[in-house]
From TrEMBL:
<protein>
    <submittedName>
        <fullName>Uncharacterized protein</fullName>
    </submittedName>
</protein>
Amino acid sequence: MRHRLRLYTGDDSECLAQDNRVPVRLSEIRRALADASRFNRAWLNDFEDEEVAISPDLYDVLSAYLHMRPGA
């Protein structure tokens, strides 16, 4: 396999930052997140300040859920 050489011009930092995002469906990570939260896994706390992007609909549902009374 031939290796391709790339010329570094110093402006790749923006491209690299954008490449760090991985789109996933909630169904792909829901079980792992629930398990990590339930058992208070340390790695979940390590990512506590990470920003995630969710749809407006999911945000509305989560907001309503957080404001519901526990017995409702």
